Amino acid sequence: MTLGILDLTLVTGTLVNLLTDCVNDTNLFGDDTPTYTITVSGRPPDLIRKDGDCQLSIYLFHVSPNRFQRTSPVLGRKADTDPQGVPPLPAQPLSLDLYYLLTAHSASATAPHVEEQQAMSIALKCLHEHPVFALPEASGDGGEFTLTMEMLTADELGRFWQATTQSLRLAVVYKVSVVFLRPRAPTQVPAKKVLAWTLAVDPAALPFTRAVQVFGTFTTVRYQRPKPPGIAEYPLFPAVVVPGQLFYLHGAGFQPNTDRVYLGGPGITEEDVTDAWAIAAASTKSRYALTIPLAEARTPGFYQLSVGDTGSVRSNATAVGVAARVDSAGGPLLPAPAPGVPWQLSGAGFLAGATDVALEAVPLRPHAGAGPPGPGEFHVASAALLEFQPPAGLAPGLYAVRVRVNQVESPPAKWITIP
Fold this sequence. Notes:
With 419 residues, the protein is mainly beta. The chain is built from 5 helices and 25 strands. The protein folds into 3 domains: 9-75 and 89-181, 2-Layer Sandwich (STM4215-like), CATH 3.30.2000; 213-322, Immunoglobulin-like (Sandwich), CATH 2.60.40; 326-418, Immunoglobulin-like, CATH 2.60.40. Helix 1 (9-24) crosses helix 3. The longest helix has 17 residues, at 112-128.
C-alpha cells in the first residue's frame, strides 16, 4: 500500500459515489416512486443552483494541516554537501484535514424545502453509517479516512454563505482526516543487501595485563528431582560449586601451558590452584575447565579467581562461590525417621554458627543447648552431618531442604515429605 495520495479528487469522488449509492438504496419513500431526482456531485453551492431537479452537493471548501501529524519528526535528507550523510530519504508526507460542505438545492416551484430536507436526510444517515471509508482498490491508492460532523454555530455558517453571495440553505460541514499527500520517492539507490559478515568472539585486543582478561565463571547445576522423577539442570553464573563439580573460568588471551590460576579474596592468602583444579585437556585460550577435588576441605564462601604468571602479573579477578556439599546418594527423598527422631542430612562443609537451614521458604532455628533439636530447629552435629526437625503444624507436602553456609547456598539435593 502506498503512503498517501496524489489527487484530492479521489477522496471527493469516493464520497460522491458513497452518497449516490445511499440515494439509490434509500427506503425514505417506501414503495412509492419519488417524483423528483436527487443528483449527487462535488460541485460548489453556487453552481448547483443553475441545475434542475434536486441537487445534493458535497463540496471541498477548506483544507488545513493535521495538528497531530504535523509534529512528527521530519524524515528529510541531510545537506547535499555532506559526503558522510545517509542516502536521502523521502520527505515527510503532507498531512491534511479536508473540510466538506454538504448542502442541497431544489428547483421545485411548489415545495423546494421538502425535497432539500429529504435529500439531506438521506445524506446525513449515509455519512453517519460510514464513519470510516477507504478509497476503491482500482484507484491504486491506499489508506482509510475518518469522517466526522463538525459542530459549527449558525453564525459561522451564516458568514460562510455571505462569502458565497448566496442565500442561506440547510448545510452541514464534515471533516475527513487524515489525508496524506504522497511524498516524492527517493532518487538514490538503497544500500545493497549484506551477503556475508564476520563475527569476532574473542575480544583479546584490549591491553589489560598482557592482553589477559577474565570475564566470569559459569557452571551447569544438575540434580535429581523427586516429582516428576528425572534429572533437572539450570545454568549458574557466577558459578557456585561443590567439590567434584565442573565449572569454567571464561576470558581471553589465556595460555594454559604457562599461565597459572590463582584463588584469593578479601582476607584470604592468594593460592595457586592450577595443578589441583585445572583440567588441561579441556582448557583453551578463552576458558579454563576447573573442578575442586572431592578430598579438598575448602571452607564454603565466596572467592575470587584470576590468571597470571608465576610472578606478580595478574588479570582482573572474578567471583566464584564454594558451597557445602549435600550428599545426593540414595535418591532425592530423605527417608522419614521414627517419630520424635530428627531428620539427618549428610554432606561436607557444614559449619556451626555459619549455617542456615530452611524447608522451602520456612527457616529453621539453630538449636541451642544439649540434646537433639526440637520442632523447627536444626543442629550442626559435625562438618559432615546436620540434624533437624520440621516445625510443628507444617502443612503436608513436599519440601526441599535448603542449606546455606557463609551465605553460599548449596545446590538442590534432598527433599522431605510431610504427611
